[in-house]
Amino acid sequence: MDILGINGSPRIGGNTDVLLDRVLEGARKAGAAAEKITLSNLTFSPCLECETPKGREVPRECEELKNNGCCVLEDDMRLIYKKIKDSDALIVASPIFFGSVSAQTKMMIDRFQCAWRTKYILKKDLFRKRKKGAFISVSASDRKDFFDNAKMIIKNLFATINVEYKEELFCPGLEKKGDIIKYGDFLKKAYKLGQKIAEAEAL
């Protein structure tokens, strides 16, 4: 099984990053191939919602891309699209910022507007391969509604790209970099989550 982990935290080596590494470690121990992408290391634009303006001619190649479910912007999101398509399971990790996912995570999610348009408007399935999914998140506060809000956004993404929301791990009360190391229980749960995703039957 090929498992892709996406780190949406801007803080390299922070609690979210460490937690995701632990998940992927558990997946590898269970026999899966696991890869991590860190969004802050990539260069990509937010969604520009590039609908065809009235009275303006759009280049034919752009229109063809849109009608085939592809984003017309050429940046590192193309790597993410391909990696997700090729994977068997997807794990998204994000800290809670202002009661939701991080800006990096949300910017990536918004770029799947092309997939949403393809699936629900054009009635085509861009992400044909069904896969398992998990969401892990860290917050300095202990507010459940913050995690619930972030979860709703992730579930909307997963529904658009044919990922079944199977597992989650929410870790409250972690503010300083490295706090996660003090919480062995969270790390154990992350390791087991990785194993569980890797050992689950293929969809």
Kindly describe this structure:
It is a single chain. Strands 2-1-3-4-5 form a five-stranded parallel beta sheet, sandwiched between helices. The chain has a single domain (2-48, 66-199), classed as Flavodoxin domain (Rossmann fold, 3-Layer(aba) Sandwich), CATH 3.40.50. Helix content is 40%, strand content 18%. With 203 residues, the chain is α/β, with parallel strands linked by helices. The longest helix has 17 residues, at 144-160. Helix 1 packs across helix 7. It starts with a strand and ends with a helix. The chain is globular.
Largest sheet: 5 strands, parallel
Number of helices: 7
The overall pLDDT average reads 90
The CATH homologous superfamily is termed: Flavodoxin domain
* Class per helix and strand makeup: alpha/beta
CATH architecture: 3-Layer(aba) Sandwich
CATH class: Alpha Beta
How far apart are the first and last residues' alpha carbons, in Å? 11 Å
Query: How many beta-strand elements?
Result: 5
**Strand proportion:** 15-25%
Task: Give a brief outline of the structure.
The chain has 203 residues and is α/β, with parallel strands linked by helices. Helix content is 40%, strand content 18%.
Any descriptors?
18% strand, 203 residues, globular, Rossmann fold, five-stranded parallel sheet, alpha/beta
